[in-house]
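Example: ABC transporter domain-containing protein.
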Amino acid sequence: MATLTVREAIYYSAQIQLPDTMTVANKLARAEDTVREMGLTSALDTRIGGRSSKGISGGQQKRLSICLEILTRPRLLFLDEPTSGLDSAASFHVMSRITDLAAREGMTVIAVVHQPCSEVFELFHGLCLLAAGSTIFFGPASTAAEFFASNGYPCPPMRNPSDHFLRTVNKDFDKESEEKLQYEPAVADEAIDILVNSYKSSDTSEVAKQEMRQINEMDRRMIGRNRAGFVTKTLVLTRRLFVNMYRDIGYYWLRLAIYVAISLSLGMIFYNVGYGPDSARSRSSMLMFIGTLLTFMAIGGFPSFVEDMKIFGRERLNGHYGVVTFVISNTLSSTPYLLLIAVVPGAIAYYLTGLQKQIDHFIYFALVLCSCTMLVEGLMMIVATIVPDFLMGIITGAGIQGIMMLNSGFFQLPNNLPKIVWKYPIYYISFHKYALQGFYKNEFSRLVLQNDLEGHKTITGEKVIVELFQVETGHSKWVDLAILCGMIVIYRLLFVVIIKVLDMAKPMLKGVMLRCYTKSVIHGLE
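Written out as structure tokens, the predicted fold is:
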């Protein structure tokens, strides 16, 4: 998280990952030991930084990500290019600390490394060399140089063995022959063929196969890790998300400033609408605009939320917490900010316009606004799951809201909407419909308006909303609010269901695609 300091990132992660049987002091001590092992003590109080703010260097970010994963001393640790972005000294120190930790804690570490320095290369016990999709060598790292030498590719003196291996099998820069009609036999291709065939018939390959057979014959058992409890994870994650939302200006603060400015403009345009013949239309226009403004502009925080979703995806797949914990924590941490951006701009527009002065009417008005913003947050969570690209997500979210707004009953009266699709079901699943009708019932109840220019005739607010706006008066405004609250829950449950379905569908989809690809390759070869 770009807004957190290194200290906060490691402390929060320690409290989430380490079990409740450890005290908070012991968890923090484990975090400090891990930070020292990765050489990040000098950067503890520096923010991580991201797309809009400068922070720690790329190498420090790499070391911090390793810190977050070795907190629990996992039995099996995968490291994807842990030395990338680090100089040779930092690479050696990081890998030597991980080697010591693995020996001390009984860990198995599998690392993908590109061109390690000779000191780092010597730290590895086993080595797997791949080229063009084939295994060139898989065995003790100390015997790899001897294997290459026995096949006519000895490592020159004073050269890093890993550099020699890569240079021997790298065929990306093989030149095309002068005739341009066919390729000359490439040196790298020849080397790969020789090494692959030699390895298949070598004793090293037989030893590896024998070890794999022994492993497959072993008794199998699940190795679990003790984690923090559900309540601990939820509270810590809520606190971390709350801090991130507070520090990220683009999440809520910029939105609040724009809402206040627009609410001031709205209040001055509709200032003190009064009770004249045109006041009913003015009130409905103001209510519709303020309701759609706060919901439609909620997509402005989508880029920040996408960044949170990336972190959630990585931490969930690493087993730190589940999707239910994330949904609850996200809801709890965002609710105070959503209340703030609903109450402050809403109060400005509400009282400048001169709507009903009773406090209970304003409380209902603010509750509906807050419910709408929470609904859109849930909608954008679903969009972020299906469309992870933030630009496409903003377009998708805006399109969905645009369709719901058109069918809310404001731009076209409910009875005039086309029955198929637009009224059934879109009109009834559009949350704008329930928000708008709740606003109408809240504002026009017990209200008396003038029905002519002279003011001799009056009309009740209840009659206005039935005849002019075709509002359903068979239930109270609190039922509309309850429906909105129910939709908030449904949207978040839908987010959980989509995550679970995607988890099951992705492996099956990849399997189908792989089978189709394999068949096409076979047909191509035929």
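Residues 269 and 353 are 8 Å apart (CA to CA).
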